[in-house]
Amino acid sequence: MISKRSTVSALLLGGALTLHGASAATKDEQAAACRGDAIRLCTFAIPNEAKITECMKKKIDQLSPRCRAMFTPQKKTKSKKS
C-alpha cells in the first residue's frame, strides 16, 4: 500500500505541482519549497495536483516563507536603454 506521503512526494518530485504566476523557480525548486506545506495543509487533496495547488493558494497565509515565495510573482526589472 502506498501512503499519502509517498504519493505527494512522488507528485511534487515529479514536478506535478504547477504554481501559476510563480517565480522563475524550476519545478524541482517549487517541489522542495512546498512539499512539507502540501503534506501539512492539503493532505485531503492528494494526489490531485490541481486541488493541491488550489488548496495552497487558499492557505497562502499559512505557507512557509519559502513556499509562499513560489506563489509570488517576481518583479520585473526595467532595463535601461543607452
- Low-confidence parts, pLDDT < 50 over ≥5 residues? none
Helix content: 40-55%
Query: SS-based structural class?
Result: mainly alpha
What number of domains? Answer: 1
List its salient traits:
82 residues, mainly alpha, 4 helices, globular
Summarize the structure.
The protein is about 50% helix and about 0% strand. By secondary structure, it is an all-alpha fold.
Secondary-structure topology with pairs:
Elements: H1 4-13, H2 27-41, H3 49-58, H4 65-71
Helix pairs in contact: 1-2, 2-4
Give a description of the structure.
The longest helix has 15 residues, at 27-41. Helix 1 packs antiparallel against helix 2 (27-41) and helix 2 (27-41) packs across helix 4. The protein is mainly alpha-helical. It has 4 helices and no strands. The chain starts with a helix and ends in an 11-residue tail after the last helix. The model has no long low-confidence stretch (mean pLDDT 77). The chain has one domain (4-71). Residues 1-24 form the signal peptide.
